[in-house]
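STRUCTURE:
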């Protein structure tokens, strides 16, 4: 069928549903709710409209003339724009996704499909990317099957039905997330999780107001409630209740501000450091951005970078951790984060830098160094285990490993062209090596998301399994043991060394890097209206960069940035 997507952003949810429909050979056309939407819809004349992520109402002329399926992240009967917020705040044990038809009243249309799932103590963003997205994929396929029957009638919303447990809820406001630093730690964390990743919880720190994100319980550090007690890897620890909480990110309340690592926003140097090595095992809750676990002869390295963005500093620390991990084991499994694997360089940190072009240059060199370390690990067998989505340089990071395994249902975006970048991270070596030059060129030029089924079929990944994190991790560890105990494991290492020497004779890694960075230097320092503009739209969550409104906003903000004095902190080499 010809299916039109009307989506406020082509986010992870929209990409996952696009992948599912594309795999079934449907023609999916993505549009945004702007001033041209009605004329675009009339021109497309779709057989069906799906709204995977929508923050605006569909015009009446559209929903009256076409069947419009809305993906709502709530159980049957739930209505309102803050479904997940309320589900977390109210500690709902079970939640779901409903596929309903657009009508005049918001979320009040007849139901095409509904899928439920068990809740976990996760942030709103993580729940959305995992449980909600998985349920939405199942729900949309069920709804499509019902739609294709022709005679199927969606179920009208009836609050008299005892099976309809949802209700109308207003849009959450800051008062719904408000807390006192004297409240119980778990109550504070629940409110931070409910407001993460948008809008964030409004907090006061040192007499200043900020939006806070990335809350983690701390079980050892203690101090005054609401006082900043320590810093670690640019996060801050704040006294709360009978303990303390780590906040990884803050955002200034100043209009136009963006979310950044907490210490970059605070710009304070006198906060004491609380160091914690990735190789230090602790028996209390805390925040450990990079963490190593060893089970017998196999090492597992976790790196939980917020939203998968990797700054210069984070790339350097991860590389150092890999170097040390290799002194302990011969087989290393890179586990990434529970939520996201990696999305490459840190565009928010780059946008906020005093010299964004120079920070981009330093960041790309740092991630190149990290990937080079993995490629050149010829005495070790390395597995990349992707629990969450990967994009841009994060895909190259995975491909540098000897074997790539992914959780079923994640989305891969092995391209950077839509950010105005040629791309580095040795992609011109790694991607063609996996799938051939023609496919590599096509998929990096098309800038389309990959589902794991297609990625497996073309050879980009080696395996995929597990619907949940726990299922995936358990199977990764089982397969890792199988590999390590193969009678020819040593031959795998020898073959790897041989292949690396052969590849180096054909074309050196230094040459690949030189050619990539020559183009990237132009992207960073010369293409102001391509990379810089697209980066601006990305970090400010402007989905349609083609509109005149977006371009005018960029011109205005660019002048503000030029006048603003961003002070970079000296982290003593961290």
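SEQUENCE:
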């Amino acid at each position: 069928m010809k299916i039109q997507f009307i989506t406020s952003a082509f986010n992870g949810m929209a990409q996952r549903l696009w992948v599912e429909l594309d795999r079934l050979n449907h023609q999916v056309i993505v549009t945004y709710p702007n001033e041209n939407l009605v004329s675009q819809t009339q021109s497309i004349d779709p057989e069906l409209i799906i709204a995977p992520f929508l923050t605006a109402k569909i015009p009446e002329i559209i929903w009256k003339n076409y069947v419009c399926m809305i993906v709502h992240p709530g159980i049957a009967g739930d209505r309102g724009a803050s479904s997940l917020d309320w589900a977390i705040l109210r500690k709902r044990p079970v939640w779901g996704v409903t596929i309903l038809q657009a009508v005049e009243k918001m979320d009040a249309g007849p139901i095409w499909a509904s899928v439920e799932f068990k809740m976990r103590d996760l942030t709103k963003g993580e729940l959305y990317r995992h449980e909600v997205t998985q349920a939405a994929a199942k729900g949309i396929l069920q709804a499509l099957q019902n739609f294709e029957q022709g005679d199927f009638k969606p179920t009208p919303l009836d609050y008299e039905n005892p099976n309809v447990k949802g209700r109308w809820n207003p849009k959450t406001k800051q008062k719904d997330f408000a807390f006192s630093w004297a409240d119980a730690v778990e109550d504070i964390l629940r409110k931070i999780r409910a407001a993460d990743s948008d809008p964030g919880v409004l907090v006061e720190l040192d007499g200043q107001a900020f939006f806070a994100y990335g809350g983690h319980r701390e079980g050892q550090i203690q101090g005054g409630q609401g006082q900043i007690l320590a810093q670690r890897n640019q996060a801050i620890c704040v006294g709360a209740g009978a303990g303390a909480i780590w906040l990884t990110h803050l955002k200034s309340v100043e209009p136009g501000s963006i979310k950044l690592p907490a210490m970059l926003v605070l710009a304070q140097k006198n906060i004491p450091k609380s160091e914690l090595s990735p190789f230090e095992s602790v028996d209390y809750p805390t925040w450990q951005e990079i963490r190593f676990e060893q089970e017998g002869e196999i090492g597992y390295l976790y790196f939980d970078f917020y939203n998968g963005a990797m700054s210069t500093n984070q790339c350097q620390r991860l590389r150092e951790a890999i170097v040390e991990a290799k002194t302990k084991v011969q087989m290393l499994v890179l586990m990434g984060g529970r939520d996201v694997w990696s999305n490459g360089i840190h565009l928010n940190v780059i946008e906020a830098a005093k010299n964004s072009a120079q920070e981009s240059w330093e960041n790309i060199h740092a991630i190149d160094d990290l990937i080079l370390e993995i490629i050149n690990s010829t005495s070790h067998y390395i597995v990349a285990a992707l629990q969450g989505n990967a994009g841009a340089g994060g895909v190259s990071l995975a491909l540098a490993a000897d074997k790539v395994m992914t959780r079923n249902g994640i989305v891969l975006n092995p391209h950077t062209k839509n950010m105005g970048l040629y791309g580095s991270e040795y992609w011109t070596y790694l991607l063609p090596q996996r799938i051939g030059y023609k496919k590599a060129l096509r998929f990096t030029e098309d800038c389309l998301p990959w589902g794991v089924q297609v990625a497996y079929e073309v050879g980009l990944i080696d395996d995929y399994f597990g619907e949940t994190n726990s299922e995936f991790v358990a199977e990764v560890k089982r397969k890792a043991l199988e590999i390590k105990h193969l009678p020819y494991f040593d031959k795998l290492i020898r073959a790897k060394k041989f292949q690396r020497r052969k590849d180096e004779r054909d074309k050196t890694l230094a040459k690949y890097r030189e050619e990539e960075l020559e183009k990237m230097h132009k992207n960073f320092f010369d293409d102001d209206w391509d990379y810089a503009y697209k980066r601006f739209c990305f970090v400010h969550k402007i989905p349609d960069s083609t509109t005149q409104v977006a371009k005018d906003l960029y011109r205005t903000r660019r002048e503000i940035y030029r006048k603003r004095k961003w002070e970079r902190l000296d982290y003593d080499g961290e």
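REMARK: Confidence is low (pLDDT under 50) at residues 564-574.
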